[in-house]
Specification:
Order of helices and strands: EEEEEEEEEEEEEEEEE
CATH topology of the largest domain: Immunoglobulin-like
Distance between the termini: 26 Å
CATH class of the largest domain: Mainly Beta
Largest sheet: 6 strands, mixed
Helix content: under 10%
Length: about 230
């Protein structure tokens, strides 16, 4: 499940002549999938790791779940479990909490602060601090309490496992049930330079409430219509 991010600026391939620009976006919102399908191909590392320990969604087979996927209606309480694996010969003490999706947590793409978004809906209760014995796998339950007034759509968050000097995050893809809106816009289109040195820049903005995986094509047009060659 793709995740929504702040607007990003991307550079398109260089075009020989750019007198006019047509940008089209094909949107793939996708349908919600049940969580924890053991045969799902992981799109990235399944575990968030610290020095000598790792954290990942609990599953019968290690690495089977690359992230948490939860779905529920406003006002519902959702449950899942985090697996902590200590591969060292000494006990590790880890603290657990929810966090917002964003920037800043040691290459995980998650913010370390809890904030007031979906990260604050995550609770480990009495299990917020866990002692994991040497060479042991511990499974810790947690809940996600969806506020009654939550709007439908995607609410990305993360589960953070931390010890002094290091923390790592496991992504949480949370969907609140209800009508979804796919609304991608192409904004701030600009052409800089001329001829072979021309560069097209634009901003993709997701104004809907569901994650999108857009495909963008560019086509240059001159005074006599579209220029020869395939769109990019």
């Amino acid at each position: 499940m793709p995740v929504p991010e702040p607007p990003t600026r991307r550079r398109a391939p260089r075009l020989p002549v750019c007198l006019a620009l047509l940008v089209t976006a094909a949107l793939y919102a996708g349908s919600a999938r049940p969580a924890a399908a053991a045969d799902d191909p992981p799109p990235g590392p399944a575990a968030a790791a610290g020095p000598g320990w790792s954290a990942e969604p609990a599953a019968a087979r290690p690495g089977a779940r690359p992230y948490f996927y939860l779905q529920g209606a406003p006002g519902s309480v959702l449950e899942d479990r985090l697996a902590l694996v200590n591969t060292t010969d000494r006990e590790r003490t880890l603290t657990l909490r929810g966090a917002e999706a964003g920037e800043g947590t040691e290459g995980t793409g998650e913010r370390a602060d809890a904030g007031t978004g979906a990260g604050s809906w995550i609770s480990f209760g009495a299990g917020a601090t866990v002692r994991v014995p040497p060479r042991t796998r511990a499974v810790v339950p947690f809940t996600v309490t969806v506020p009654p007034a939550s709007p439908p759509g995607e609410h990305p968050a993360a589960v953070i496992a931390a010890e002094p000097g290091h923390e790592a995050a496991v992504r949480v893809h949370l969907r609140v049930s209800g009508p979804t809106l796919a609304a991608l816009t192409v904004e701030d289109v600009a052409v800089r330079g001329e001829g072979a040195a021309a560069v097209v820049a634009y901003t993709l903005v997701n104004r809907g409430n569901t994650a999108l995986a857009p495909e963008v094509s560019l086509r240059a047009e001159g005074a006599f219509g579209a220029r020869p060659g395939r769109a990019r």
